C-alpha cells in the first residue's frame, strides 16, 4: 500500500490517544508542537502525561463514544483486540486512525519528523522499515541550515513585500525563489538592502548543463541543482529520463532531441528557442548529453546567446568519450600502452564522405583514437585507417552504453571489427576505441 504524505492542519483539533504508556508519551511529544487538543484515555497513565497541562488525561477504560468528534485517533494500548476494535470503529465513522505496530489496521502512519519552526518534513517507508526512515530523518536534520527557523520567518514576511512591489505573478514567484536560494546558500535571513536589490532580479538566463552519459546519477551536483531551480528545461535526446523528475512541477519541459536521420529541430531553431525563453525572464537549462563542449554544439549556442546579451553559463558533464569505454573496462590512457588520446567526430560537414580530414595523421599517431557518433561509419573508418598504414591487428572496441550503467562491448581488431559488430548487433550510439588499450578488459 502507498501512503500519500498529506500535510493537515491539526491546530485546535481534537486528538484521542488510547493508552497511557511510553508510546503514548512519544506520540504526545510529536503532536503537541502542531497545536492539537489531545486527550489520553487509559486505566493507568504515566505521570509525565498527567502533569502536562496541555493534555487531558482520563484514567479509565475506553468506550466507543470516546471517539466522537475526534479528528484523529491513536490506538496505543497493550490490548491487540482493543486496538483492532478502535481501528474498525474509526474506519466506520470516517475518522483517521493509527494503530501502533500494526500497519494493516492504520488509516494513517506516523512519519519520522523533522520540525524546525515552520519547516516540517516527514519521512515514511510505508511501514517497511521505520529504522530507515529514522536514519534518513537524522541525515536531513543535519543538512538543515542552522538558522532555518529565522530564514523561514523572514521569507514568510517577504511574501507580503513581494506582493506589494511585484504585480506579475511569475516574476514575483521568481523573486521569492531567488530570495530563498540566497538565504539557504548564506545560511541567514536577508538584510533590508538585499531585499531591495533582489526585487529587480527578473532577468532571464541560460545554463548549459552536461547530463553525463548513461545513468542519470552521473550528472554533477551542480548540474542537478541547476535542474531543480530552472523554469524551462530544453533537453536533448539520449538523456536518462529519470533526470526529468528533478525539475519542479511548474517547469516547462521542451524536447529538442536529434537522432541520425530524424532531427526534431534545426540548430537555428534551438538557438532561437533559448533566446526567446530567456527574454521572457526565465531561468533556462539546456540539458545536453555528455559534455556540452564535446561535439555538443555548446559553443554555437553560447555565441548565439551572447550576441543578444543574454546571461549564459556552462556546467560540464562526463563525456561518453571517456566514461563509456571506462564502463567496459577500457582506459583511454595507460602509461605502458597509451600516453595520449584523441577524440574525433565520425561525422563532419566539410568532406564528401563525412569522415574527418585528418584520418591519415591519426593513423600515424601513437595513443588511443576515440570516434564518437561513428557506428554507421565503422566500415569506412577501419578501411581508411588500414589504407593509411595502421596495423590490421590493432585492437578495436565498439561500446554502447545503457541508462542502467551497463554496456554492450564488442572487441576485435581493425581487420575484423566490422564483422564482429554486425554479428553482435551493436546499437547506436556507440563509442569506437582504436588502440592498444581497446584490448583491455579491466572488469572481466
Task: Characterise the protein shown here.
The protein is an alpha/beta fold and 444 residues long. The protein folds into four domains: 14-110, NAD(P)-binding Rossmann-like Domain (Rossmann fold, 3-Layer(aba) Sandwich); 148-188; 205-318, Cobalt-precorrin-4 Transmethylase, domain 1 (3-Layer(aba) Sandwich); 321-439, Tetrapyrrole methylase, C-terminal domain (Methyltransferase, Cobalt-precorrin-4 Transmethylase, Domain 2, 2-Layer Sandwich). Helix content is 33%, strand content 20%. A five-stranded parallel beta sheet has the order 3-2-1-4-5, with helices on both faces. Strands 10-9-13-8-14 form a five-stranded parallel beta sheet, with helices on both faces. The longest helix is centred in the middle third of the chain and has 18 residues, at 148-165.
Show the helix and strand layout.
Layout: E1 14-18, H1 22-31, E2 37-42, H2 47-50, E3 55-59, E4 72-75, H3 80-93, E5 96-99, E6 112-116, E7 119-123, H4 130-143, H5 148-165, H6 169-186, H7 192-198, E8 205-210, H8 221-229, E9 232-235, E10 252-255, E11 258-259, E12 262-263, H9 267-279, E13 283-288, H10 298-306, E14 311-315, H11 320-327, E15 341-345, H12 359-364, E16 368-372, H13 378-387, E17 395-401, E18 407-413, H14 417-424, E19 431-434
Parallel strand pairs: 1-2, 1-4, 2-3, 4-5, 8-13, 8-14, 9-10, 9-13, 15-16
Antiparallel strand pairs: 6-7, 11-12, 16-19, 17-18, 17-19
